[in-house]
Amino acid sequence: MIKLKNNSEADIRRLRGSDFEAVRDFLRLFSTETIFTNQYPGQPDIERDKSVAAYENKDNLFLGAFLPDGRLIGMTSFQKPKPNHPWSGGNAGFGLCILKEFYHCGLGTELMRQLEAGAREKGVHRLFGTVRTENYHAIHLYLKCGFTIEGITKETAFINGRWHDEYYISKLLKEEK
Ligand SMILES: CC(C)(COP(=O)(O)OP(=O)(O)OC[C@H]1O[C@@H](n2cnc3c(N)ncnc32)[C@H](O)[C@@H]1OP(=O)(O)O)[C@@H](O)C(=O)NCCC(=O)NCCS
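Above: query sequence and coenzyme A SMILES. Below: predicted holo structure tokens.
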């Protein structure tokens, strides 16, 4: 259990197949709270079989933060796009989502810490992601966690009548002692 800055307690652990409903309910709410990920209001629910297979795939790591009553309040994950490739098998893409009620409570920092530890255990060399250029809190968090902005990709999303750009970010895990 970790104690958050709003005094809530959360248990961070790997997602299991039996968490499917908790993840579905989390995403239904999360998708209405922010435009900073690709989850959008009214999107179709996740599919059980695909989701469970992704949680149980040994090349991936899906972590969830749960309140004592079982509610999922934050998630992070990485997946290796080409886990068996001899050259690029060490790349893994990550994402991070927290419910608005729990922003700014230290949860993002803790989820990133545990995600990176899990990535090191699974031999990830390069942890990469994208972040919208106006997502200042996420950019601050990723830079604090040692990520580097590698470049910018233009007009990747059209939201509320205008185009949004993204940064490519990454952290090379072998560089840290
Ligand atoms: C971005 C996000 C992951 C940050 O998570 P979080 O749990 O709020 O982060 P933390 O509480 O660990 O704070 C991380 C840093 O950001 C700062 N921060 C976070 N929210 C802030 C806010 N609303 N105002 C000012 N600073 C804020 C914190 O001060 C902290 O910096 P510090 O350690 O130097 O003090 C979370 O807001 C979120 O899920 N947003 C919506 C989805 C999203 O943007 N995901 C990332 C997509 S790339």
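The domain at 2-175 is CATH 3.40.630.30 (Aminopeptidase).
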